[in-house]
Amino acid sequence: MNSNIYKKTTRRTWRKIGLAALVSTIVVVGCMSRKDAMVKTINGVVPFKTWTTYGGSADMSRYSELGQINKKNVTQLQVAWHYPTMDNTEYTFNPIVIDTIMYLMGKNSSLIAVNAVNGKEIWIHANLAGITRKGLNYWESKDRKDRRLIFSLNNTLQEIDALTGKSILTFGNNGYISLKNDLNRDPESIGRAASGTPGQVFEDVIVLGSSPGEGLFSSPGHIRAYNVITGKLAWVFHTIPEPGEFGYETWPKEAYKYIGGVNCWGEMSIDAQRGIVYVPLGSPTYDYYGADRIGANLFSDCIVALDARTGKRLWHYQTVHHDIWDYDITAAPQLITVDKNGKSIDAVAIATKQGFLYVFDRVTGDPLFPIEERPVPKSDVAGEQAWPTQPHSTLPPFTRQKVSVEDLNPYWSPGHADTMKRRVAATKTGLFTPLSDKYEVVAMPGAVGGANWGNTASNPKKGIVYVASMNHASIYKLTKTPARNTPISAAAMSAAQTAYVQNCQSCHGANREGAVGPAINNIATRINLEAFKTLVATGKGQMPPFAHIDETTLTGIYSFVTGRGAGGPPAGAPGGRPGGFGGAPRAAAVPKGPVVATGGAPDAVAFNAQRPTKTMTDYPEGVPNYDRYTTPYGLSNTDLVNPPWTTITAYDLNKGTVLWKKPYGQDARIPLKTGADEMGVPAGSQRKSMVVTSTGVLFATIANGQLYAFDADNGKVLWKYDLPKDTDGPMSTYQVNGKQYLVVPATSAFGVEAGERAKKPGLYPSGYMVFALPDKKK
């Protein structure tokens, strides 16, 4: 095989993509003042002055040139208005602002348009349970008469009129298209095909990723683009190559028929001037054992540059060969311009879970800083063949990449500390150490460490990239999956009960009789084991997907919930009726306010209630029946090492150096000495967000409901605000009538300190906190 397959492959077909600069612009004035009007080019909104899309602009820099808030006055920020979500749902939604209208989520997963100046409701499209959790897309025609909000809802793509709030039924098939199609798999075998992030709009197409789940035989994560007017498929890029396509030989023959994943569930970025979309891709399934996918496995764990108009691959770089650590790339590629050796270069920087920052020429894909292929250990698991080398960026890593007994958490109780010291001493550790079925392996960073979605931002004109990261480890040991319907052991049942408490009890209750979610104590009469696995892995309604729970644990949870062993109802039992966990549909309450519609496109409701009838459970005919291994996810080890647990690292990519690095956040249970640096937060702190301003302020959130303003040049804390709730939703900044605002979703009940603050009287309820400077006195 050609070794170049595993490295970056440049295709200079980019020359055909819009090299002639667009010099004409169309100035479009909406209902705001001319000062705040959106200035547009043919390729979309001119970036950095508005927040009309997830991440602020197509390049996902989270950068703003609004200049009202600066280093000197940021301490004067105060709450301008607050919009309560009126429920207990954790919203991770990034509000967008078009003219004077803000779009956000609340009130039982309703899409809500509010006045961006005061939060007054304009319209509510109610009960969109299953909508894209992180945000949505906006598109408008050149004359602005046609304005659309575009989003995934369960397994459909739908649109809503941005001015009226009503579904656009001329889109697709009476208002929706099925995202189970266009994957070269039987649609009846696919459980989940939508993504938690909204994708990107370019010209008249929307480019979408997906979150198909991480279990064996999940569906492939091909990148698809659809016309925003008709819903017709524009192009598909096969992330798992098919016969005759580049990279096919990096897999076993016909692996594309049964391998899943290699999906973009994170954040993609677009160079609007060149028409290039940069797509970060995840690992193949199964994440931690790859005997059925021997090879480098393109395009898993790659950043891929695609022609946004055709889907043609321009270049790629693979950051992990044959991934067996779940090192998905999910953080937004940062499109920056750097001055390197006196030459101005448009570049793209990508941060990874393993703690590396890679930087490439945005057009050619050539690395701007050396990347070294270094030998890594072999696997000792039967059938597995770990790739012999892995790429190491020579830029300083932003996370720790090793752990020893001396590195363990000093704040544990003595008994627990002794237990963990003995445990870690018996493991193997080190970056890219393969998992084993004979001993535990400590991965540092683990699958929830390093950089995740929401964790990158930049000052694109200065070549500065900011990475929020977690020093979180995972402890793994592979276990061979028992044959189907094998009676569950007492030890496995105990582990299943623990898994239920950690993942399910808060919604379904200690006695499975329901809490904020439905009762499931009679689930065995309504849904069989295979349907249960699909439902939990793919999610439904307000229940998010739990794709990280392995097959063995899912079987155990089903046995624990039903008390009937691993078999449950016979294989031919119904897979469940619409609603909840297969029970009868519950009527969704219509919230108070100016409700104009409910539920999205009417015909899509019945479609989304359908469960897959041909779930793939075995390898196709003619393919060897490979052994199956699973492993716990490792989430319980986020506090394994000593602090700092969370940091922000600022890179000056003109020089390839760290400009500054700062721990931030503090666990309320650990006293902080006066004048000492914060230690970070050991758990619940992944997937936060940042906003960078041209005035030198870096806003960042962290677990326990803390909002920070840093000096973007040196990391000094300028201002700090304790939110009433934690936040997992990205922030936005915008300007109306000459006044700049910062909106922060504070909707999460997680976090020790925030949980205590929420009990205090007089605090804002769960909702969107909107900050601004006080009006000047006349």
UniProtKB/TrEMBL annotation:
Co-factor requirement: pyrroloquinoline quinone
UniProt-listed Gene3D superfamilies: Cytochrome c-like domain, Quinoprotein alcohol dehydrogenase-like superfamily
Superkingdom: Bacteria
Keywords noted in UniProt: Heme, Iron, Metal-binding, Oxidoreductase, Signal
SUPFAM superfamilies xref list: Cytochrome c (SSF46626), Quinoprotein alcohol dehydrogenase-like (SSF50998)
Keyword rRNA processing: no
Domain (Cytochrome c) ranges: 491-565
Family: Belongs to the bacterial PQQ dehydrogenase family.
Protein name from the UniProt record: PQQ-binding-like beta-propeller repeat protein
Organism: Mucilaginibacter calamicampi
